[in-house]
TrEMBL record:
Top-level taxon of the source organism: Bacteria
Family matches, as InterPro entries: NAD(P)-bd_dom_sf, SDR_DHRS6-like, SDR_fam
Gene3D superfamilies: NAD(P)-binding Rossmann-like Domain
Pfam families (alphabetical): adh_short_C2
Name of the protein described by the UniProt record: Short-chain alcohol dehydrogenase
Length: 255
């Protein structure tokens, strides 16, 4: 029964995403890259935005060799002028995914004010700026999905948590503001996962961090990137979900 249900779910996703135009902002690595791969496999027409010319070129060429229609654009999505220019030159999209945002450690008292401000800016205001630029270019019935997060504590991840909470509020507001055209807004909230966001850690530090997070997670492990990516695909595929934050955190938010 379980296998049959999984097959049916995949068939529905294929039907709903086939030939859909999907834009992934931050699609050259981590969650964004995996969402691109899963969407391409479901027959979607995928475009990605990334800051690294080399990463983007390699990924696009790799997929073209597999006969997938992947398009790529190099730009800094935190720059409003670049975003405005991009959308003015491109057609409408059915779904837009954003993995924009960083991370930070440190509480409210032991962190520099500038560091807290930057974490909130990178997480919330950059995504708000994207929404203002992108929503007019989403087809009726389409969606925009952001990246929030769970886990951590205000005492050791102050700015990041404020940014995540702001994203959660943003999707609720956008869901109501966009309802006239049946456009949807949601967010995926993973807990810590070993992605490129932590590229500055050594291998030993990465392994240690993963062990620490796994020990605090009800399921006893960290997420696989494809597990988190499938949540974005689900939110694109389900036309009756809006204003929601989907936690993909192994039960961290419940503990």
């Amino acid at each position: 029964m379980k296998a049959a249900s999984q097959i049916k779910t995949r068939q529905v996703s294929v039907m709903l995403l086939k030939n859909k135009k999907i834009l992934i902002v931050g699609g050259t690595s981590g969650f964004g890259k995996q969402v691109a791969l899963q969407s391409l496999a479901l027959g979607a027409k995928v475009s990605i935005i990334g800051r690294s010319k080399n990463k983007l070129k390699y990924f696009v060429n790799e997929q073209k060799s597999k006969s997938y229609a992947l398009q790529g654009t190099v730009l800094d999505a935190s720059e409003q002028d670049q975003l405005t220019a991009f959308f003015s030159k491109n057609n409408f999209y059915d779904h837009i995914i954003s993995t924009l945002g960083g991370a930070m450690g440190g509480g409210f008292l032991d962190s520099q004010l500038a560091d807290i401000r930057k974490a909130i800016e990178d997480k919330f205001f950059v995504n708000l700026q994207l929404a203002q630029a992108a929503v007019p270019f989403i087809n009726a019935g389409g969606s925009i999905t952001f990246t929030s997060g769970t886990g951590g504590h205000p005492s050791n991840a102050s700015g990041a948590i404020v940014g995540n909470q702001a994203i959660n509020t943003l999707v609720k507001g956008l869901a109501l503001e966009m309802k006239s055209e049946r456009k949807r807004a949601n967010a995926v909230a993973p807990t810590w996962s070993p992605t490129g966001l932590w590229r500055n850690l050594t291998n030993e530090q990465l392994v240690q961090r993963e062990k620490e997070v796994a020990a605090q997670t009800p399921l006893g492990r960290t997420a696989h990137i494809n597990e988190v990516a499938s949540a974005y695909v689900y939110l694109m595929s389900n036309d009756f979900i809006t204003g929601q934050v989907l936690n993909v955190d192994g039960g961290v938010s419940a503990s």
